Amino acid sequence: MWKRRIVAFLILVVAVGIGYFVYTSEPKISGQTHTGFLNKPFRLGLDLSGGTQLVYRADVSKIEPQDVGTQMGSLRQVIENRILDSKKFKGVSEAVVRTQAANFSNGNEERLTIELPGITDIAEAVSVIGQTTTLEFKVERNKDEAIPVTIGEDGNVNLGAIEQYVSSGLDGSYLKRADATFDQTTGLPTVSITWNDEGSKLFAEITKANVGKTIAIYLDGAIISAPNVNEEITGGQAVISGSFNIKEAKELKDKLNFGRLPVPIELVSTSNIGATLGAVATDAGVKAGVIGFIAIALFMILWYRLPGVIAVLNLAIYVAIMLAIFKLWPVTLTAAGIAGFIISLGIAVDANILVFERMKEEVAHGGTIRDGLTAGFSRAWTSVRDSNVSSLITAFILYATGTALIKSFAFTFFMGTLISLIVAYSVSRRFFGSISLGREGKLAQFLFGSGFKNAKIVIKS
Fold first, then answer.
1. Is 234 a residue whose pLDDT tops 70?
2. CA distance 2 to 399
3. The pTM is what?
């Protein structure tokens, strides 16, 4: 008995610790700002925080079907880099960029959804996301090439700017991808570049004509690298080597990939939600959750008495675990997601109700309360399992086929159902096992009664 009580006490301690983490890591509740592990505020979607959403259609008609997923992933990474590198979006936290595979809900189109919390100027957002970035590969100017000269209005002769590099005709449209790799001989970081068929031929011609010279790589007019050409490079692949460290190689790789859009995109819809409307939606969602919890708690305690108290305790642990998951995952909470979480509150006590009703049946047929609890947990398991599995399957289907709004609901509903199943059986059973019922007298009959009736113990002769 004492071992069971120690286990139950440890569960309570862990639950309190989780609840404390949820409280202290939320600046709006605790009033404190933390760094490191405790810097885990809830991530709110646009409908709760306000901001701009852009939805783009991706043209994958020229991409092999087996490569669509990879190319869409590259597209997402390019857009994420644009957001991070843009000065207009400085201070934008938790921007969300996600791809949606073609299915019946979006007209069988590959789509890209971008959410920018706090940004309410749609035109500004579109200008940054859809901007054309220039990636150029230039060669050294011929020293014998004439210098441009102009005569100004004042009669003075003006020498044109002497640029070290000139256009070679090779740009980012020929680039398939760039990867950070390691030299198999030296083990040093390198950057590998892969060209498409046209780019492969053009690059071979350029390198053949510029052996011993440098080729400058320009991104939006600024040189990001100027590697030497040691020999003619054929085969559609090139390797940039040098005194790179891993970080520098990755940065160059990202800049090269940033300079091209692997998939053409077209803006199909925009939406804007003001911060005030988002705050109202957040308050409404929180209020609904609190009211739902209190209503369930009152019903369980008034109808099931002591088992109801334990069920409410389990429900509080369930809520703490779910909120911690929302922070640590992290989950972007939307109004639909909060709705899924609130619905899961009712499902969270469903297993306890089935157990309690089975316990009542066992006691009514002459069993003791302890026997009723044991039988209730064992015999109700099949019903609890089947009902929860059906909910999990439904949530999975919704997540796999639904839009972003439906996915948010489905994810919180799925996680809520899964966590509630674990808490209802593993935690609830530990708490009941730590209770000493003694001779199961009138007090025990009252505490384990339900509704307007006490538990009746039939003493067998």
1. yes
2. 44
3. 0.65
